[in-house]
Amino acid sequence: MSNTFCILPWLHLYVNADGSVLPCCIGDYRYPLGDAKNSSIEEIWNNENFKNLRYNMINGLESPHCNACYQSEKMTGNSARTHFNQKFKKYKFLEDFTQPDGYLEKMDFKYLDIRWSNICNFKCRTCCATFSSAWAKEDGNKNVYIFAGGNSNDKLYNELEPYFEGVEEFYFAGGEPLLTDKHYAILEKLITLGKTDVRLRYNSNLSKLKFKNKNVLDLWKHFSDIEIYASIDHYGEKAEYIREGTNWKQVEKNIRQIKEYTPHILLSTNSVISVLNVSTLNNFYNYILENNLYSKKYSPTLYTLIEPDFYNFSVINDNLKHKIIDELKTRNFDENLNAQIDGIIQTLEKTNYNHENRNNFLEQTKIYDRKRNRNLLDYFPELKSI
Ligand SMILES: C[S@@+](CC[C@H](N)C(=O)[O-])C[C@H]1O[C@@H](n2cnc3c(N)ncnc32)[C@H](O)[C@@H]1O
Ligand code: SF4
Ligand code: SF4
């Protein structure tokens, strides 16, 4: 196998809410392989971009779409590429069906990640209009709603439905997947097909478990393999500030309902670590653990925010940074969470203070605090000296 080979372009499809098709969710968005709004998936699957990508992968050549993986491999030896090659190694034989120019007649999806729309009821500070219609509305954008399939997602859905039978894993993000009609259409179709052993993976804000006349818990009861990563960056009022739209009591209630009615679901948290929550991380995870807001195999993911710059660690001055590091070093969780917090400490230590980013942070905060009738320091007094 060549050292740039990745199995995903042989069995996976990623479509962004704006219709751009990428080799996967970390593929570089500046190099879309096609546009699902105005081409069929069949056309895109063997267009010049897709064929070149496969050709490069077979021949050990790098493609700009996959830089995130090459960078990660240089730093750590591992990447999403190595992960997926291992995960789907039984499908390596698909490479043998590829023609010399990268053409692949077989279109047999095993893993689908379609971000059907940007429909979302939240306006998380670190997010944006591409992922959230609530953000787009607040920013006064002309197009509030974006759909992966253009005017109607029906065409895209109808193109993909015949492949559901063979799919092993669906990943739902968005937008907010629990407010996405095609998410429900997929679950209902899978139940009709009797394909309830398929893996369902989610990132969700868990604000609503009911959509129109459907209760997602009733649907989830049919499926044996579900993983939910609840996007939670803090608890209580801090959560309501960071992830505008949050009613914390309701999120907690929903988590307890999931645990009670669908205890087989692996429920964990996915947190974006930014200037807003980094100084109180120990307090946040103590709350999650003390209140039992997770399932048996709770394995939280801490994701260090990279963009936008004005929410990353570069806005924190050295004095405050050392205080935060000292506080984080008192962490006392399990091995996994301790190791991830140590990673955050290392990133803090490596990140240089940037005065321009800090000023942008204060400016952006002021703008959105005014729009949302909030005041940063009422929620985060620990950031007074920033
Ligand atoms: C865009 S959301 C879509 C799914 C769903 N609405 C949710 O919040 O889980 C996917 C993930 O991106 C995370 N996210 C938000 N802002 C981010 C940023 N600036 N950098 C990286 N991830 C971010 C969210 O917290 C969430 O876990
Ligand atoms: S090499 Fe990496 S970026 Fe490219 S498709 Fe595979 S996992 Fe995605
Ligand atoms: S809930 Fe998800 S999609 Fe909505 S604004 Fe927050 S991060 Fe973005």
Identify the notable features of this structure and list them briefly:
single chain; 386 residues; alpha/beta; 9-stranded mixed beta sheet; two-stranded antiparallel ribbon; 16 helices; 13 strands; globular; binds S-adenosylmethionine; binds iron/sulfur cluster
Walkthrough of the structure:
The protein is an alpha/beta fold and 386 residues long. The protein is 39% helix and 13% strand. It contains 16 helices and 13 strands. Strands 3-2-1-4-6-7-10-12-13 form a 9-stranded mixed beta sheet. A two-stranded antiparallel ribbon has the order 5-11. Helix 8 links the parallel strand 6 (169-172) and strand 7 (199-204). It is globular, with a radius of gyration of 22 Å. It starts with 7 loop residues before the first helix and ends in a 7-residue tail after the last helix. The site of one iron/sulfur cluster (SF4) has 14 residues, from helix 4 and helix 5.
Helix content: 25-40%
- Helices and strands, in N-to-C order? HEEEHHHHEEHHEHEEEHEHEHEHEHHHH
Class derived from helix and strand content: alpha/beta
Q: Note the overall shape.
A: globular
Largest sheet: 9 strands, mixed
* Poorly predicted runs: none
Quaternary structure: single chain
Q: Helix count, per DSSP?
A: 16
Question: Which molecules other than protein and nucleic acid are bound?
Answer: S-adenosylmethionine, iron/sulfur cluster
Q: What is the C-alpha radius of gyration, as a whole number of Å?
A: 22 Å
Q: Between the first and last Cα atoms, what is the distance in angstroms?
A: 50 Å
The number of strands is 13
Strand order in the sheet with the most strands: 3-2-1-4-6-7-10-12-13
Mean pLDDT: 96
| Estimated share of beta-strand residues | 5-15%
